[in-house]
Structures are given as C-alpha cells and as structure tokens.
C-alpha cells in the first residue's frame, strides 16, 4: 500500500490485546460490534479525523488475542498521551500496550512471518474460566495419543481437510513450525499451542476438536493422519468452542515485542505447572 506523496503521513503499529467475548470477531461488519470498529471509532474520536486500521489477521466471534497488531497512517503528530487517552476511551476488554512508529509501508498483516495461537481447556466446571477457557467435561483422555497427533502437524503442510471452507482459499498450504500439547500437574487443564506462517478459517478449532476426539477414543490416530495425507475429510468437521482460543504471538522480521502475559494471567498463573507432554 503506497501513501499519498503530497501529505506527510506517518505509519504506526499498535500493539493491543482483547477479550473477544463481547465481539463478533476482529473484522468490521455491518450491524454487529467488532473489535476493529470499536478501535477505529475510539481512535477517530481522539485524533478528530476518520481513520481505517489494518489488522494482522482475523479472529472469530468470541476468540481472544493476548497479542495483536494493527497499523494506521496518521497525518499529524499528536501532542498528548495517545495511549493513555485510548485506554481511557476503550472498553475494559480492549487494551493498548504500545504505539510504535514505523518507517515506510510495512504492513501489519502481510509482513508478519509467523503467528502463534494458544488454546486452553479445563475439564471441570469453573465459573471463573467460563469465558476465557473452554469447558470439556472429559475424563481419562489419552494424552499419549493426543501428543502423537500433535507431532504429525509439522510433518504436513496442506491443511485443506482441516479448515472450514477450503475452496475460499487460493491455496491451503500452511508451514507449521511448531505444535505442542501441555497439561497441568493435576491433568485438569490442557493447553495446545501451534505456530505457523498462516492459518486457514477455523483451522485451529477444528484441530483441537479432533485432538479431543482422539483423546476420547472417538477418532483414531490413523484416521487423523489420513486427513493430512489425502487432503480431505468426508464428514463435516466440528469446531471446538471459541472462548479457549487466543492469538498469542505475532512475529515480524523488523519488530520483536514480547506478549503482555499478564493480559491472560488467570490462565497462565503458576505457568511453571504446565508440563510438555
């Protein structure tokens, strides 16, 4: 995207986080409230000019982001604490962590080289986790089989069989660089983490649901691998619940910002208790 040459624009990357419970995803849509529309409205109000922001990706309804970046081009430098005013204006479930001036036309979405997502599950009813982790009343999950399935993910790169609408994509290739499964010391909390250069629609929620099916004995490891090999799934894939999913890390070759882990402190409390399995 090229900026108008006749105006002295400055591009900024905004580092934000949000709880997606009250929003119909990131992307601006007609007649519903989205994270993008809330941020654009707040920013336009404060700088007294209409703005359009460009996010690093989309999240579904109810999905969260503990690290997210968007960029915006602003004509004039402000002479006040914009981060403070934004955080005062925004609802409590959206936070601005950093505002970073960027040289040139670097793009929040197209210049990201890797994205990491975390998915949190609790297997017991807990009123304090209801909107930030997914409840699955599962007992005696086979973690060994689930771990074996997770290990397959980085061995294949075509995820056509594990996305919601494969025909909407020009290609379904995703370079998964890492995938891990963690469990807490009691075995009651599960954390799935995956990193890739890109993700397809609902891909992670489909994978998580199939991992639970494997752990519960409803899906075999061979069947799961056949989806990756044959690039097709005969039955319609079900999705895991949205509230357990977090976009948790965005990687750029020109920008390295650590996630604000306290944003999801309830989930990551006693983080040393997570055991890689």
How many beta-strand runs? Answer: 10
Q: Which word captures the global form?
A: globular
| Mean pLDDT over the residues | 91
Question: What structural category arises from helix and sheet content?
Answer: alpha+beta
CATH homologous superfamily descriptor of the largest domain:
Pseudouridine synthase I, catalytic domain, C-terminal subdomain
How many discrete structural domains?
Answer: 2
Helix/strand order: EHEEHEEEHEEHHEHE
Q: Using the coordinates above, name the CATH class of the largest domain.
A: Alpha Beta
What share of residues is helical?
10-25%
**Would you identify the CATH architecture of the largest domain?**
2-Layer Sandwich
- N-end to C-end Cα span: 44 Å
Largest sheet: 10 strands, mixed
- Report the C-alpha radius of gyration, rounded: 20 Å
Notes on the protein architecture:
It contains 6 helices and 10 strands, in the order βαββαβββαββααβαβ. It is of the alpha+beta class and 277 residues long. The protein folds into 2 domains: 93 residues, Pseudouridine synthase I, catalytic domain, N-terminal subdomain (Alpha-Beta Plaits, 2-Layer Sandwich); 163 residues, Pseudouridine synthase I, catalytic domain, C-terminal subdomain (Alpha-Beta Plaits, 2-Layer Sandwich). Strands 1, 2, 3, 4, 5, 6, 7, 8, 9 and 10 form a 10-stranded mixed beta sheet that branches. α3 runs antiparallel to α4. The longest helix is centred in the N-terminal third of the chain and has 13 residues. The termini are far apart. The mean pLDDT is 91.
């Amino acid at each position: 995207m090229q900026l108008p040459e006749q105006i002295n624009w400055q591009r900024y990357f905004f580092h934000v986080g949000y709880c997606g419970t009250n929003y119909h995803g990131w992307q601006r849509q007609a007649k519903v409230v989205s994270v993008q529309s809330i941020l654009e409205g707040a920013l336009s109000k404060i700088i007294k000019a209409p703005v359009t922001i460009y996010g690093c990706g989309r999240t579904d309804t109810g999905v969260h982001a503990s690290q997210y970046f968007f960029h915006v081009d602003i004509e004039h430098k402000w002479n006040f604490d914009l981060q403070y005013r934004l955080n005062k204006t925004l609802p409590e479930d959206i936070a601005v962590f950093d505002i970073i001036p960027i040289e040139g036309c670097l793009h929040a979405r197209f210049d990201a080289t890797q994205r990491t997502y975390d998915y949190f599950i609790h297997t017991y009813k807990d009123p304090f986790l209801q909107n930030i982790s997914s409840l699955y009343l599962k007992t005696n999950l086979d973690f060994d089989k689930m771990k074996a399935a997770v290990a397959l993910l980085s061995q294949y790169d075509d995820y056509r069989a594990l996305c919601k609408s494969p025909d909407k994509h020009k290609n379904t290739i995703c370079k998964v660089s890492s995938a891990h499964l963690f469990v807490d010391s009691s075995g009651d909390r599960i954390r799935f983490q995956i990193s890739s250069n890109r993700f397809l629609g609902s891909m992670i929620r489909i994978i998580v649901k199939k991992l639970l099916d494997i752990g519960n004995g409803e899906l075999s490891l061979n069947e799961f691998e056949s989806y990756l090999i044959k690039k097709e799934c005969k039955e319609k894939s079900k999705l895991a619940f949205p509230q357990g999913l977090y976009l948790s890390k965005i990687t750029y070759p020109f920008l390295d910002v650590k996630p604000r882990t306290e944003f999801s402190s309830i989930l990551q409390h006693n983080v040393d208790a997570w055991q890689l399995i």
